């Protein structure tokens, strides 16, 4: 047996790392999607943000929604997991967990308060218009609607929604903002 084994610290230092974020998919009673416009980038985003060290994704989602739009919402089902490969200027891949933030009525919408240090605006946007505002993360809109409908998390690899394997799996059509799938048992 050799004594040249890596220590745990050495082994982990050689492993790839990723950035991690969490967000909320929130709609109004008309089915429009809540997006926020950060002041530090050109594209709009779902309410959410970076996960802090040792923070669970669902807790990061709740914290970020509270910070960004002033709402203390229950975090619902995990709708989308999005793996985004390295993309300039980001030097590492990003994994994003998108949770169901529910549907807000007019009274809850009136409670929205923007975090002015980071955000310039918030708006409920028609689902077909949202992907253009979101840029490369726009693929998450159709995937989130599909997940809400099917009750199954949708995995997105890069720009492509990957169907779940097995009954009830579906794919998001990223070109139209619609979702469809085979919802029959095998």
Automatic annotation (TrEMBL):
The keyword Hydrolase applies. Its cofactor is Mg(2+). Keywords: Hydrolase, Magnesium. InterPro entries: NUDIX_hydrolase-like_dom_sf (IPR015797), NUDIX_hydrolase_CS (IPR020084), NUDIX_hydrolase_dom (IPR000086). Residues 164-186 are annotated as: Disordered. Residues 170-186 have a biased composition (Low complexity). Gene3D superfamilies: Nucleoside Triphosphate Pyrophosphohydrolase. The keyword Hydrolase applies. Residues 17-147 form the Nudix hydrolase domain. Signal peptide: none annotated. One of its GO terms (molecular function) is hydrolase activity. PROSITE patterns: NUDIX, NUDIX_BOX. It comes from the Bacteria. This is NUDIX hydrolase. It comes from Yinghuangia soli. The lineage of its organism: Bacteria, Bacillati, Actinomycetota, Actinomycetes, Kitasatosporales.
